[in-house]
Amino acid sequence: MLNQIPTILLQSSSDPALAEVKSITPKTFWLPEGASTLSSEIDWVFDFINYINYFFFFLVVGIMFYFMWRYRQKGREVYARGPSHNTVLELGWTILPTIIVVVIFFMGFKGFVSAKTPPESAYQIDVTASKWNWSFKYPNGATSTDLYVPAGRPVKLVMRSDDVLHSLYIRDFRVKQDVVPGRFSSLWFQADNPTEGEEFHWLFCTEFCGTGHSDMNRKVFVLPEADFGRWVVEQGRWLDKINDADLWWKAGPQLYRACASCHTLDGSIGTGPSWGNYDGSGDIWSRTSSPSSQHKIDGGKPISDIIGPGKEHEVPEGYLRESILNPGKHLVDPYGNVMPTFKGQLTDRGIDALIGMMKNLDKFDATGKLISPPDGAAGAPAAK
Prior knowledge:
- Helices cover 31% and strands 15% of the residues.
- The model is unreliable at 1-21 and 378-384 (pLDDT under 50).
- The chain is an alpha+beta fold.
- It has 2 domains: 1-65 and 86-237, Immunoglobulin-like; 243-363, Cytochrome Bc1 Complex, Chain D, domain 2 (Orthogonal Bundle), CATH 1.10.760.10.
């Protein structure tokens, strides 16, 4: 889940030829700068239709104003019976628009087929949409919450939804596709121009999916292919390279990014229960680990009824782990069953990192930034 990438990869391209690649289409009044190989064809059709609109707008409005002036009332009543039929005119306003619409159809259909037919060599990234988060999974098992793609290579996104209808839209690439629960959908693009420094492209959800819809904006980074190869390898094993004792403060804040859209850290109300103290029973660790906790679940039952020796969960860590992997089994009052499962997305080490962060919430601010590094820790990273 970590979007951890060496700074040098974002500052410069290792391939001078790629670094000189220009945008596919320039920025216009209506459209942002195009950044994929699909942009030129889509933008050309868009502009063609716009020019048709401009022409007929000024033609119709111009004729309308001419008629207003030419046949304006001049102070006397005149009754003149106008023509009731003109074969040439009626054929003209029927045939000409039909030809224009047919031309637009074939132009659009050609672009549609191109946009729906990915090359066989396309690099596949699996995408999971949920309320309210995107998860991107790469062939080696690496995952991220922002999207990273190789420059100069076609990329195919295979997408599914864990809950409701979402829609993935990357404006600069001119691609958009609904992500429907219960089925897979896909789109593809090729971005030839690497992003540099702080540059990125926005990825949006454009289907209203609930109160956290606006939190589903993500960043798309385009890396030179060699740099992307190194990044995806490091991304796949970043958790394994962290010492067990450091998991909670090094990995916890990064993994929390996938939780932040529903779970706050300061006790404020969200889509899901806050990790902070929101009901007087302490933060999430206090209300699950205390034998006397009266924190309510499942319609009024104290959480202490299911945690403890001889109970469903011997220790609070077991309950928290199940809440991440099987969130619908026990529901915290008064919240509904809206949390997606993270089974297959989080390893046991990732879950350990999140539970460790829950145990040390006093060392983080409301955004998940580490404010109190553990003793002996140097250069503790802040959450991104």
